[in-house]
Amino acid sequence: MAERRACLSVENVEVRFGGLVAVSDLTFDVQDGEILSLIGPNGAGKTTAFNVITGYQAPTGGTVSYNGVVLNNLPPNKVAELGLVRTFQKTSVFAGNTVLDNLLIGQHLSTSRKLWEVLCGMPSVAREESALAEEAMRILDFVGLADRADELGGALPYGEQRLLEVATALAAKPSLLLLDEPASGMNPTEKAKFMGLVEEIRKQGVTILLVEHDMPLVMNISDRVIVLNQGSLIANGTPADVQGNAAVMEAYLGPGAPHA
Amino acid sequence: MRWLEWTFLAFLISIPLWVTDQYFIHILITTGIFVIAAMSLNLLLGYTGQLSLGHVAFFGIGAYASALLSLGFDVSLGGGLGIAVDPKPVWLAFLAGIVMAGLAGWFIGKLSFKVRGAYFVIVTISFAEVTRMVALNWIDLTEGPMALSSIPPFAIYIPGLFEETFYKKVPNYYIMLAVGTLSYVAIQRTVGSRFGRAMIALRENEPLAQSVGVPVTRFLLLAAVMSAAIAGAAGGLYAHYIRIVDPDIFLFIYTVTMVIMVITGGKGTLAGPVVGGILFGILPELLRDFAIPEVQWMIYGLLMILIVFFLPQGIVPAVTSLFAGRGTRRQRDAQPGVGGGQPTQSHSE
Predict the structure, then answer these.
(1) Residues in chain B within 8 Å Cβ distance of A54
(2) What is the distance in angstroms between the CA of the first residue and the CA of the last residue of chain B?
(3) Residues in chain A within 8 Å Cβ distance of B209
(4) How far apart (Å, rounded) are the C-alpha atoms in residues B227 and B229?
(5) Banded pLDDT at B333 (limits 50, 70, 90)
(6) What is the CATH code of the structural domain delimited by B2-340?
(7) Are A115 and B198 within 8 A, CB to CB?
(8) Distance from the Cα of residue B58 to its chain's centroid
(9) Angstrom distance (rounded) from CA A56 to CA A65
(10) What is the per-residue pLDDT across A6-46, written as a single tens digit (0 to 9) for each?
(11) How far is C-alpha B184 from the chain's CA centre?
């Protein structure tokens, strides 16, 4: 693989909830333009790591930095301003808004009209709105939800809600997209389509950090895989490296398990 | 489609031309003032999803500030310090009342910066109680329970050209209508814009809104300030129309009335507070002719229960979906084109 620059650096991050250590001494990089997967058994600390990176959880130790900017004490919306946008493990859409409105909300950072312009009904406001709607439709078309634009977000079938989450995140123009189990609950056909979509997103220059339980999907799509177990990093390498790693085998299957 | 809003506005403008009953005009003015207050509450409750149960505080602050500035006051703060203010023109006092209420909204927004839901409710209730106690006990300034009276009415004064003081009901009706229309348009434009979308995002899913970069507390604060300022405008209208303001203006029951108007009309819709406000403003007057007060209150309460039970979303969304004639119940929240007082099918854009 060509030499790449690290954009996100996680250094010695630790998260404790009282006596419980959710993540301990976690160190890894995300390289520009790669698809990096974060895997591990339930409770390994994957979502906690996501929460720390995106500002939803303050680390009790260590630093997270993105292109040299330390993220530790930034609120989630500031982290998003820097180009890190996440999705959530539990399906999370604006259920009472239309699909198009979901994306328009997602485009918040691209909006700039002032309150007085809105109150006075300036033409610049209408111009911005139509530009936003056009861009939103382009993204919906890209993920395959264009014909759903007027439906309510909460009324979509599960698989499409997951697509809507990704579309909403894309509307925020991320440079690093963090996907937390985006394919869970999808059927095999939807999953296959979804993998293609993630590849497409990467081709457009977006770096991707993925948490996923579906091993075939992970191994297929990732440039690199890191494995967490009980809050610690136990493996870091290409999909092939990780699959053959004894520690990973043990974490998933228990000690002394027969060859999987 | 905007024709419904324009038709309704034209209808409201025409009322004094064919209604001669001054008492009825009076009822319309007080109802209109309550509708404006309910619209302002709806901005917070309906769009950001935060229940302010102390909303009457902003109404009262607007009323007191406007009344005091138009009357002038001389108050001692102790230690030889004092503030004396000469009477100001009513329009200036009215604007200052709006600003004061907006500042109070900013203060409450900041105070409840990190709290949501039940905590926000408690902060707002406490704030309204505190303002009532101040109005009741700071007798030097507010006259306490003796009330501020002889408040000057609205007036137009152009030096050397024109002078008119509005003691009559009809001009006050039009002033109310002008303020109400402006408030309606301001709320309509705000909720239909990126600002309104951010407020709705806060109501619908706060963590998701943050993840795409929406600074939710900033928009909560904006909603609180706008909402309080509009409530303050309603309070100012009240002060210069009724021309007497006492601490009872801060009573909890008035907040409850506003909440009922918003909920029954349809929270998170533009027309909701207008419909709910007119219904519960006019209804007691219509009932007055053929029911004793106790029965009136029972009918009032029963109607409220029926509406909440059968139309939990409120009247406007129910009628909208009825007219839309589709199986899917669509919320019209973010759509600025919905009705101007009468609920019906309405397409935005």
Answers:
(1) 211
(2) 7
(3) 94, 105, 108
(4) 6
(5) very low
(6) 1.10.3470
(7) no
(8) 9
(9) 15
(10) 899 999 999 998 888 888 889 999 999 999 999 888 888 88
(11) 10
Reported as type and span, the H/E element at residue A234 is strand A232-237
One DSSP character per residue, A175-224 reads: SEEEEESTTTT--HHHHHHHHHHHHHHHHTT-EEEEE-S-HHHHHHH-SE
Q: Which of residues 76-135 of A touch B (CB under 8 A)?
A: 76-77, 80-81, 85-88, 92-98, 101, 104-109, 111, 113, 115, 118-119, 121, 125, 128-129
Residue with tokens 């520009």: A32
CB atoms within 10 A of CB A230: 15
Q: Which amino acid makes up residue A227?
A: V
Residue B194: exposure state from Cβ atoms within 10 A (0-12, 13-18, ≥19): buried
Residue B174 to residues A70, B9, B180, Cα–Cα distance (Å)? 57, 11, 10
Q: Please indicate whether residue B323 or residue A127 has the higher confidence score (pLDDT).
A: A127
| Grouped pLDDT means (10 residues each) for chain A, 260 residues | 76 89 90 91 87 92 92 92 92 92 93 88 91 94 92 91 94 94 86 90 93 87 90 87 81 65
Interchain pair B213, A81: CB under 8 A: yes
| Pick from A87, A104, A152: CB nearest B197 | A104
pLDDT tens-digit map of B215-235: 988 999 999 999 999 999 999
Q: Does B210 touch chain A (CB under 8 A)?
A: yes
- What number is the ipTM of this complex? 0.90
The verdict on pTM exceeding 0.90 is no
